[in-house]
Fold this sequence. Notes:
By secondary structure, the protein is an alpha+beta fold. It has one domain: Arc Repressor Mutant, subunit A (Orthogonal Bundle), CATH 1.10.10.10. The protein has six helices and six strands. The protein has a four-stranded mixed sheet with strand order 1-5-4-6, with no helix packed on it. The protein has a two-stranded antiparallel sheet with strand order 2-3. A hairpin with a 7-residue loop joins strand 2 and strand 3. Helix 3 crosses helix 4. It is elongated. One zinc ion binds at residues 116, 118-119, 121, 155, 157-158.
Amino acid sequence: MILRIFAHGMAMKDDKLYTPARVALTAYLKGKKMRRTPERYAILEKIFSTDAHFHVDDLHRKLEAEGYHVSLSTVYATIQLFVEAGLVRRHQFGNQPAQYERVPQGVNESHHHLVCNVCGRVRAVKDPTLIELIGNLRYPTFKTDFFSLYVYGICSRCQKKLKKEKESKAATSTAKKKKTQNH
Ligand SMILES: [Zn+2]
Ligand SMILES: [Zn+2]
């Protein structure tokens, strides 16, 4: 079975996803008796405008570029809050710095990740069969919320690069051999 790989980060202005997230955040903050600051909603909206994985400092930079001034530590604290509220998921691919992505509320956007061991690029794959399979698994005395799956390997770009490097190495060594033979 060959599955379609899709690039994370397609621009998706998605009010359909933002609205339920906003509602969930409001309920969470009310429940925790925390302030409903405009910063929290602005950061949430920014996160929900794309399905891309992101680093916290990149998100901070983007907010700054759009004229939204919040300190980096506020962004970090807010992301932490969103993780606890189940609005954002934290990923750690290999030994890369942590990345985050939005968690759509009430919709199944499950996907797994292909991580390149050479360049670190992460691609996403949606596999309905796998989602159904894992969704149907029942563990006694354990209640499943979600699953996370990382597949490590070498991406197409790096495969091409490695092949080229191999070929050029082979070419130089045969050229060297010819040279020595001519002498
Ligand atoms: Zn790669
Ligand atoms: Zn993802």
